[in-house]
Write a structure and sequence with these properties.
Blueprint (H helix, E strand, L loop, with lengths): L6 H13 L7 H6 L3 H4 L3 H7 L8 E5 L2 E7 L5 E7 L7 H13 L8 E5 L5 E6 L6 H5 L10 H21 L14 E3 L5 E3 L4 H4 L4 H4 L2 H4 L7 H6 L4 H17 L10 H4 L1 H10 L16 H14 L10 H9 L25 H10 L7 E3 L6 E3 L15
Antiparallel strand pairs: 1-2, 2-3, 3-5, 4-5, 6-7, 8-9
Helix pairs in contact: 7-12, 7-16, 12-15
The structure holds adenosine-5'-diphosphate and magnesium ion (MG).
Length: about 400
């Protein structure tokens, strides 16, 4: 594969193998406060831990490749994500990004333990979470009962907390770009942890990724301005979060072709119920009990997050405040962005979007994703820029 091999990196790896892991911790690593032995896993150790990446240990398969469960000699369970993307990025850049991601730590984020860059494939090693991802439970009528209302509300608030950290508190701002039910993992107590938060950084804007929905987002969760024009900002995540909130309340996917026409698209259906003053009809019928005030608040926040206009979507700070303050009066949502759903295209025009972003005082964190080239430039926190990412679709 076409990855540019940096001789310094391999020399460092050789030192690691020859002299033990800690011996190779260089000055850079010491400055970072991250020792190399914390970062690198031997391929051999991962092969043994996963029974040579046996199908029996496969946890799932995503756009970047398969994920395997592994057991380390010290008894620690891990999840190994084999990145089978043909990355043109050099090994040094890759490990630099992993070092950054290792510093990104929050109780609502899956912990990245390190990486492995031996052999043709790069791998990421995560803590293993026993309850898999939210989609497994939420969209399975036999299992979804175990997600009672209190748990769902905790998941909704936990994901908001994790996103707030990524957007505002992490060492560098991270726009996740692929918030969805299968990227929310659940720990033994069903607490939510956002996963795959670094993939957009690790594989920024390469052509190969533009053609997959995996890195650029997943259909049904993507903000209209991003899906159509490639405009990427923290509000892209806010939109996906809104869809996820509505899925958690309703216990159904954002699109379900099996349902009757007016219900098939979750956002359109929620908007219709909102207009009729019957939002609580959305609540998952498998729930034995539910707090109607909390459910109505979640639905309203979900709709606000999915506003077509970027400026009308709250940022994660406001969302966190809405959840944690009793006295917060929620704004009334307008019609959500329904782009690309069931053939209906209600779009934010480019000019409206530009006006909104320029005028929006709370707007932060824009990124230019450059189609056709292999980088994403992070601009200053208050700037906004355009991307030609939609060329890849
Ligand atoms: N750290 C982990 N612990 C437990 N299961 C995991 C972990 N990471 C991923 N998985 C499982 O593997 C599946 C595939 O993961 P991924 O490659 O991220 O694809 P996707 O998120 O699109 O499903 C996930 O849906 C999840 O069920
Ligand atoms: Mg995932």
């Amino acid at each position: 594969m076409g990855c540019c091999i940096c001789s310094g990196f391999w020399a460092c790896l050789d030192k690691l193998k020859a002299g033990g892991r800690s011996a190779a911790a260089g000055a850079d690593d010491a400055e970072d406060g991250i020792e190399s032995f914390d970062l690198f896993f031997d391929l051999n150790a991962l092969q043994i831990a996963t029974s040579f990446f046996s199908d029996l240990n496969k946890l799932g398969h995503g756009g970047f490749g398969p994920v395997y469960k592994g057991l380390m000699p010290n008894g620690q369970e891990i999840a190994v994500k084999k990145l089978s993307v043909d990355s043109r990025q050099g090994a040094r850049e890759f490990t630099n990004e992993v070092k950054l991601l290792l510093r990104v730590q929050h109780k609502n984020l899956v912990m990245l333990l390190g990486c492995c860059v031996e052999g043709p494939e790069k791998m990421l090693v995560y803590e293993y979470l026993p309850n898999k991802s939210l989609d497994y439970i939420l969209f399975n009528k036999q299992k979804s009962g175990s997600l009672d209302w209190t748990t769902r509300f905790r998941v909704i608030m936990g994901v908001a907390r994790g996103l707030l950290y990524l957007h505002e508190e992490a060492p560098e701002r991270i726009i996740h770009r692929d918030i969805k039910a299968s990227n929310i993992l659940l720990d033994e107590k069903l607490n939510p942890k956002i996963s795959d938060f670094g993939l957009a950084r690790l594989f920024p804007g390469e052509d190969t990724h533009l053609n997959t929905f995996r890195i650029s987002g997943t259909h049904g969760y993507m903000a209209p301005e991003y899906a159509m024009h490639g405009y990427l900002s923290v509000k892209t995540d806010v939109f996906s979060y809104g869809v996820l909130v509505l899925e958690i309340v309703s216990g159904r996917k954002n699109h379900d072709g099996q349902l009757e026409r007016e219900k098939a698209d979750l956002l359109s259906y929620t908007w219709m119920l909102h207009q009729r003053g019957k939002v609580l009809d959305l609540v998952d019928p498998t729930l034995a009990r539910c707090n109607p005030d909390e459910a109505a608040m979640c639905i309203q926040i979900g709709l606000l997050c999915c506003q077509a206009s970027v400026a009308e979507r709250p940022d994660m700070n406001s969302i966190h405040l809405m959840f944690s303050s009793d006295s917060f009066t929620l704004p009334r949502p307008g019609k959500p962005g329904l782009q690309g759903r069931g053939g209906r295209w209600t779009t934010t025009s480019t000019s409206a979007f530009t006006n909104n972003t320029n005028a929006s005082s709370g707007y932060t964190g824009a990124t230019k994703a450059s189609g056709g080239s292999s980088f994403v430039e992070e601009y200053s926190r208050n700037s906004m820029s355009h991307s030609s990412m939609d060329e890849g679709r």
